[in-house]
Amino acid sequence: MAEPVMKTVAWIAGSVLFAAQAALAQALPDPTRPPDALNPVVAAGPSESGPVLQSVLVSRGRRVAVISGEEVRQNGKFREWQVVRIGETDVVLRKGKEVQKLTLFPGIQRQQASRADGGKAGKRRQEKAR
User: Fold this and answer.
1) Average pLDDT over residues 44-48
2) Which distant-in-sequence residues (6+ apart) come within 8 Å of 107 by Cβ?
């Protein structure tokens, strides 16, 4: 008779420990999640100032952007704005005579990278091929 009671007590104790472990695991942050500073919507907080470009997809024959949570296509509409152009890192919107350019990473200027070897690596490969 003591054996079934012990099994029941062990089962209940195991269930309580399992539930407690699951509750603690939910409180831990996801270590793979990027910092909020990299997400312009979270970093800026709720904004009344205008649309925010969140993502861009450019492929052969397809250009799509996500602006303030809405998916838009080139030459489509975003609210009252016409989507004029979708580039690799920016979107141009037009409303009447007003034009607005949204960028994926505001405040970061894109620069042409320079090679540390002065561009000589390509020449060396061409000479070896001869």
Assistant:
1) 51
2) none
